Amino acid sequence: MDNSIVKVSHLSHRYSRDWAIRDINLEISQLGVLGLLGSNGAGKSTTMNILCGVLSQTEGTVQIDGIDIRKHPEEAKMRIGFLPQNAPLHLDLTVGEYLTYCAYLRNIDRRQVKAAVASAMDKCGVAHFRTRLIKNLSGGYRQRVGIAQSIIHRPKLVVLDEPTNGLDPNQILEVRKLIKEIAAERAVIFSSHILSEVQATCDDVRMIEGGRMVFADTMKAFNNYILPNSLRVYMHNPPSMERMAAIPGITSVELLNDGGFRMHFDTTSLVSSTIIQLAVDDNWQLTEIMLEKSSLDEIFAQLSNKTS
Ligand SMILES: Nc1ncnc2c1ncn2[C@@H]1O[C@H](COP(=O)(O)OP(=O)(O)OP(=O)(O)O)[C@@H](O)[C@H]1O
Fold it and tell me: Could you say which of 2, 41, 81, 183 would form a disulfide bridge with 150 (CB–CB 3.0 to 4.6 Å)?
């Protein structure tokens, strides 16, 4: 039996002539946080809007808990909570009033509204602000209220669009913690264009670039994939480029504008200790050696090339 919480198959969408997303496949059948990573314009919002039933796809299918969102939108949407990038808050309502309003919008039985509001407020740590106007809350607490509205109807899937954007470092840590707590009971999809945000929060990662899925695996596999594979090396008495290129594990060497060298290595070898040892033995007068981290743009480029 298919027990997927979300199943997206061959999803493609075009707004006009060009495809915004093409052949996106995604399946979630367990709790936890899945990160949707991609640069601006990659296709994250298009994918999430289709997933939440806000946009109707050109091709492909989306099933939420086995229900086709196009054929049975109301039933499918009952199982989804959504926090868009700009949280749909009513600033002149109190936290309690706003969440009560959301509970009614979500068609929660009148007799259960009070309990549903209390439970969402407790879960998101905003119960003590029940009577405070939303406009008088800090950014972090507003975001908590936004998350509370997304879980008020106890959905199986929660979709959060860049939920930590614009928060200060402490608020980011608190919201990340809350997201992980929420994900203990339901599947969460979390989109971001910030790699470290996804690394800190997600169990699995899907990367979209140019409308195509370029990576789909666990966060651990992703972190292994993006291990550095180049070193920057500075020496007062460098050997020839040929000598450097002949170091076991080094695949190529470039001369940098600042007089240093970039040495590419195959990721399996422990080449830095070899370089240090050779520098001592042959008096290269090593002054600096550092691993270069790939930027997100470079990772996107690497992954895109790999899949094209
Ligand atoms: N309403 C629209 N009409 C036409 N083109 C659109 C529309 N919305 C998005 N696009 C295009 O579709 C592509 C994917 O955009 P989308 O908003 O899904 O990307 P994104 O990854 O969410 O980016 P961002 O982080 O900037 O929101 C882009 O080329 C964008 O210009």
Answer: 81
